[in-house]
């Protein structure tokens, strides 16, 4: 078989044809890139519009409300600490117990206090004193006395109360045994 001879003009035409095919391939590739770039530009514009429409003011309002709640809670904690911030003395606690008993017209028959101890009340270090007492009188007065102890000891509460009702309906000999706990915050 004899080799194929191509003239200079043939080589030129062949080279021009290859150049046109390569150029057409590059054109198609560039056209695809332009279409993809256009699609990405459109997607970017769409996402930017969506992002611009996102309402961040609601989140800011919630943040401001939460900051205010935190400030209110911190103020309440400070107020409670200030209310608790007092030294407790056995004499003061017993005097207040007798004062409340007098107001509600009941007679204190037995009373005792513990020594002042250190304790935590819901994570706050406090001094604590317990008072145990008994009182007698009319049943409604006894009930009001127990409620009055809870209402009049700012830093204390009735831990338990047992009421003994007299069998004679006209008798004024109802009685109650009461355990009262008083807290005091002595920290800063």
Biggest sheet overview: 5 strands, antiparallel
Number of helices: 4
Q: Count structural domains.
A: 2
CATH superfamily of the largest domain: Ribosomal protein S6/Translation elongation factor EF1B
CATH level-3 fold name of the largest domain: Alpha-Beta Plaits
The whole-angstrom Rg is 45 Å
What is the average per-residue confidence, as pLDDT, rounded to a whole number? 83
Alpha-beta content class = alpha+beta
Low-confidence stretches: none
Q: In CATH terms, what is the architecture of the largest domain? A: 2-Layer Sandwich
CATH class of the largest domain: Alpha Beta
- End-to-end distance: 111 Å
Give the helix level as a range of percent. Answer: 40-55%
What is the chain-wise order of helices and strands? Answer: HHHEEEHEE
Tell how many strands the DSSP assignment holds. 5
Give a written overview of the molecule.
- The structure is a single chain.
- The chain is an alpha+beta fold.
- It folds into 2 domains: 9-81; 90-184, Ribosomal protein S6/Translation elongation factor EF1B (Alpha-Beta Plaits).
- 54% of the residues lie in helices and 24% in strands.
- The chain has helices at 8-53, 57-84, 90-103, 139-152; strands at 107-113, 117-121, 124-137, 156-164, 174-184.
- Strands 1, 2, 3, 4 and 5 form a 5-stranded antiparallel beta sheet that branches.
- A hairpin with a 2-residue loop joins strand 2 and strand 3.
- Helix 3 (90-103) crosses helix 4 (139-152).
- The chain is rod-shaped, with a radius of gyration of 45 Å.
- The mean pLDDT is 83.
Please give a handful of descriptors for the protein shown.
188 residues; alpha+beta; Alpha-Beta Plaits; 5-stranded antiparallel beta sheet; 4 helices
